TrEMBL record:
The chain crosses the membrane at residues 40-60, 67-84, 104-125, 146-166, 178-199. Keywords: Membrane, Transmembrane, Transmembrane helix. InterPro entries: UCP010219. This is DUF3159 domain-containing protein. Coiled coil: none annotated.
Length: 220
């Protein structure tokens, strides 16, 4: 590995489409809410319409139907919450609570020595749980996972929570956009830096050395 450049975490985890798409319906809600004189019903309708149009476009481009259905369901649920409470800022309540849950889940995964960054990367690389048998890699994933806890989820909770509490609907829409793909990209970059800094130069890297087959082991 010493002569080969290590691929970045961003290269392993791949595109930005999901985070980017998730930020568009909230913008539609704010625009519809403002255009109709702060009507929650019109804002909700605009968000759902944007989500449907975006989903149809992604399906036409070969996107996965299941992922798009889940995204649309989240937008509908957010719209129903706002319609039920009669408060426009509650359209963002589901997003706030999901980030609270994510922060707690990622932190708990580190404590029990199943850091979620390792789980995700292991699945992407087809390693299943083999990475956990490497103490150095397990420790590196644990350190890098804290970046996700504090640098992404806790930050979102603090920003969304403050704006939601004060009823700043427009600011919530802006924050929802800024703290989507740009923050995800920054989190991936920083956590990747932390991850690789924790690996010694002689370490084979995230993909690990291939496990020997039974034919390669003497005496088998």
């Amino acid at each position: 590995m010493s002569g080969e450049p290590r691929e970045s975490l961003a290269q392993i985890l791949g595109g930005r489409r999901g985070a980017l798409d998730a930020s568009i319906p909230p913008v539609g809600f704010v625009v519809g809410w403002l255009a109709a004189g702060q009507s929650i019903a019109w804002g909700a309708g605009a968000a759902i319409a944007v989500a449907v149009a975006l989903g149809a476009y992604r399906i036409a481009r070969g996107g996965k139907v299941r992922a798009l259905v889940v995204s649309l369901a989240a937008v509908v649920a957010a719209a129903l919450i706002a319609l039920h409470t009669g408060r426009a800022q509650d359209f963002f309540l589901l997003q706030l609570m999901s980030n609270v849950a994510s922060a707690l889940l990622w932190a708990a995964s580190i404590v029990i020595r199943w850091p979620l960054l390792g789980v995700v990367v292991g699945l992407v690389l087809g390693q299943k749980t083999r990475w956990r048998r490497d103490p150095v890699l397990l420790k590196a994933y644990s350190r890098a996972s804290w970046v996700w806890v504090f640098g992404q989820y806790t930050l979102r909770v603090a920003v969304y929570g403050l704006l939601w509490w004060s009823g700043q609907v427009i600011a919530l829409g802006v924050a929802r956009t800024v703290l989507s793909w740009p923050l995800v990209a920054l989190t991936v970059a920083v956590s990747g830096w932390v991850l690789y800094r924790a690996l010694p130069p002689e370490h084979p890297g995230l993909r690990l050395a291939p496990e020997p087959s039974s034919d390669d082991v003497p005496g088998t």
